[in-house]
Amino acid sequence: MDEFRRRAFEFVEKVQKLPDAASVLDAMGGVLGQHGFDYFCCSYLAPTATERPRAAVLAERLPAGFLDMYSEEQFLYADPALRYCNVTVQPFRWFKEAPYDPKREPRTAELVRRVRDFGMVDGFMIPVASPARRLGQVFFGGAAIKLPDGQLPALHLMALYGFDRSVRLGGAPQVPQLALSIREREVLTLAAIGRSTEQIADRLHITARTVKAHIRSSCDKLGAVTRTQAVMIAVRDRIISP
Where is the HTH luxR-type domain positioned along the sequence (predicted)? Predict the structure, then answer.
């Protein structure tokens, strides 16, 4: 295992024991700082009808004054990255892969310029969902990102665990989980070690369609939205041991 992945998995191992949001951000910085990641944010995509805008932020280490500017200018409604988080479950390059038209969306173009003025030139957004199925995101960014080749899955895993711990530290109610069947645990265990749907089907002598059905059932029982999140919850709660 290379150094980046090793340190990412060390973060996953210890994050559930961290006592506060600041410690979660410190741990992220310990893994990612040498790769140009200086700024971090875990937040819901939007506040609820009864929340103030800043209440949607679970944990952050962003440039001084940025959130005040963002809130005062009401950029929430012009942010292409948050908008894209509503339509994808895959990590994406911040702004570079979040589609917008600068000519037709001048407010969005202004937001992108202002963000870069604060030194957040590049980064990654990881869409996530809380156990209560409220959509959120984790942002990793900086002036010059140097993520090692092939390490986006490790960053994705860090985001899921960091967001989950931030939600729990905030006192969010937990969704009751139903017990997984033996077959569902087998499928998630194989998924956790990187096996594809077809590989799982071959190993268990079932069809790919049946594998997908077990994944969907596991997601429903665990309160997960994606396969990756289901694996994360199952490992965190020691339902499986990959």
Answer: 173-238
